[in-house]
Amino acid sequence: MQESHAVKKTMMIRTCRWSVGLHILSVILSSLHGCSARDTITMKSSIVDGQTLVSAENSFELGFFGPSRSSNVKRYVGIWYTSNPQTIVWVANRATPLSDKSGVLKIADGCLKLSDKKGKVYWYKERQYKRLNIMAKLNDTGNLILYDVDGLKRKLWQSFEHPTDTFLFGMKNDENLVLTSWTSEDDPAPGNFTFKQDPQANRLVVMNRSITCWRSWRESGKMFELVKSLTIKEDDTQVQKNERIVMNFTGELQYWKFDWGMKDWSLRWWEPKDRCSRYNYCGNFGSCNINSTLPCKCLPGFKPKISEKWNAGKFEDGCSRTSTSYGTDLLSLKRMKLEYPETSYIINNEEACREECLKTSQCQAYTVNASNTDRQLSCLTWTEELKSIQEDQDDGYDLYVRVPVSDIAPTLRSCLTCGTNFVPYPLSTGPNYGDPVYYSFDCDMDTGQLSFMTPSGNYTVTHVDPTASIFDIEMQAKEPVNCHAMHSLGSKILQLNRSSPFNVTSSCSSNFTNDSPLKSTIEVKITWKPPLEPTCNSSADCKEWPHSTCNITGTGQKRSL
User: Are residues 466 and 521 in contact, defined by beta-carbon separation less than 8 angstroms?
Assistant: First the structure.
């Protein structure tokens, strides 16, 4: 009995010790949780490397971090998503990292200050408030705010007014907003690219130092609407914390949204989304086609300013008019987009816009847009060079460019242009144009699309080079091919007969080497043979070919001989 009583007593003591131990552990954990979950820094508190502030609803966290792939010990103070610490949305000392883990963020000398163990200051809130009782708080929008505690929490400073590379819900989209990219994926130092608003033109812009990389289409476009929607009132209860816009170090302005199903960030939108989206990629009067391997071409009636650079794939110098006269003829282009002029005005009908352009000596082009709200017609006229031209756009519009007809159809037998495609003699889009032997082309006047007609079907023409007697067509391949196989593939699919004046060439576009794999949509180059003498019905048809008359050849055809 005594032995049994001793055992029970021992068990009771152990149970009591476990209970006391668990209680102490619970208190410690609770205390630690309370410390780690605080969201403020007061004049009597601070955080050191290894400690963090956490917003009230556990959405954002502020603390010290170091780029994961960096070999050097660099420490920064930043704000990130609590659920995803790798997603940094703000950095305090991005240009002045600490070299060790002795950093402390505190309120001292009337301002928020970051220093090391030796007292060296790496970052501080510029203005000092020595006579105020101030406090820094991290709220649930990711905004770090410096308050005057005794002044009804009057805001003295906030990180939302000093962003780094990320735009979050609640920030103001005004002329003061500037996002600056990181230098690289692992270096938060200010990089080359900035995003801001151009208040004069009411556009969003991305700059590479002093060079414009991208501009929004005035008050329109997906990115413009996204930035506008992210700007909310502070008391809005429907704050979305799972979306952000980032000025990436690659030069892309990116819109990210958190995918709760995948539990990861998803890139939903970005600009520039392709080379044609880059600002004025093909230069003034140069048209960009994203579906073409050779993206740039001069508008009909224009020529490269510097042929050598243009032929080498350097398009920034753009194009200039073939002749100095604007003329009174109008080149009609479909599904076009370009940078808007600064002014527009309401008109009653399209003819009024045409007349306004033709009577203005410096008018280069015009278009008419119908308002979606009040159905009014707006006339837009360009008196400066046409920039950032993109063709074959679903949301494009009809553009009318002043070009003398003699610059786009130099002979009576020349085809008229088809969209942005110049169709040189002897190529033919109809019985009254070009040489009948070369009547293998069709122009869709509604879209401005030129097609090459073959026994196997019609193929989109993406580029015509009259000087080299070559044009490019777009073909679909079931699987990627290389330039070496392109010649046999093209000849087999097109089914051109031996008498055809057209031949598939084995040369590739300048964008590819002979062994580089091509995507399933490829461009095949086709040459045309020099034509015979022009056909005619009478000697009057031969006036453009001096010293010739209309005679019957051995084949029975009449030609200018």
Answer: no
**Residue where a domain stops, chosen among 273, 290, 312:** 273
Residue 416 included in any domain: no
* Residue 280 to residue 387: CA distance in whole angstroms: 5
Spell 368-400 as b/e; 16+ CB within 10 A means b: beeeeeeeebebbbbeeebbbbbbbeeebbebb
Higher pLDDT, 382 or 556: 382
Is residue 32 situated within a structural domain? no
Are both 444 and 517 inside the same structural domain? Answer: yes
What CATH number does the domain containing 51 carry?
Answer: 2.90.10.10
Is there a contact between 392 and 289 (Cβ–Cβ < 8 Å)?
A: yes
Round to whole Å and give the CA distance between 159 and 136: 11
Average pLDDT on 522-548 reads 78
Can you tell me the distance from the alpha carbon of 468 to that of 465, in angstroms, rounded to the nearest whole number? 6
User: How far is 286 from 302, CA to CA, in rounded Å?
Assistant: 9
480 and 373 co-located in one domain = no
DSSP 66-95: --TT-SS--BEEEEEETTEEEEEEEESSTT
CA–CA distance, 318 with 389 (Å, rounded to integer): 11
Contacts by residues 270-274 (CB-CB < 8 Å, ≥ 24 positions apart):
271/206, 271/214, 271/216, 271/223, 272/206, 272/213, 272/214
Q: How many CB atoms lie within 10 A of CB 409?
A: 21
Residue-averaged pLDDT of the chain: 83
Measured CA to CA, the distance from residue 387 to residue 284 in angstroms comes to 5
The model's confidence at residue 80, banded by pLDDT at 50, 70 and 90, is: very high
For 250-287, write each residue's pLDDT tens digit.
Answer: 999 999 999 988 889 999 999 999 999 999 999 999 99
- Per-residue DSSP letter, 361: T
**Any domain includes 128:** yes
DSSP letter (8 states) at residue 276: G
Give the integer Cα–Cα distance in Å for 283 and 496: 37
- Mean pLDDT, to the nearest integer, of 176-198? 95
- Write down how long the chain is: 561
315 with 298, same domain: the answer is yes
What percentage of the chain carries pLDDT values higher than 70?
Answer: 79
> Does residue 43 contact residue 111 with C-beta atoms inside 8 Å?
no
Task: Report which of 293, 296, 278, 392 is spatially closest to residue 339, judged by C-alpha positions.
Answer: 278
User: How many C-beta atoms surround the C-beta of residue 519 within 10 A?
Assistant: 9
pTM given for the model? 0.80
Domain count, the chain: 5
Q: What's the pLDDT band for 20 if we cut at 50, 70, 90?
A: very low
123 and 114 Cβ atoms separated by less than 8 Å: yes
Q: Is residue 219 part of a domain?
A: yes
Q: Which domain holds residue 475?
A: 436-528
Q: How far apart are the first and last CA of the chain?
A: 136
Averaged pLDDT, 199-218:
87
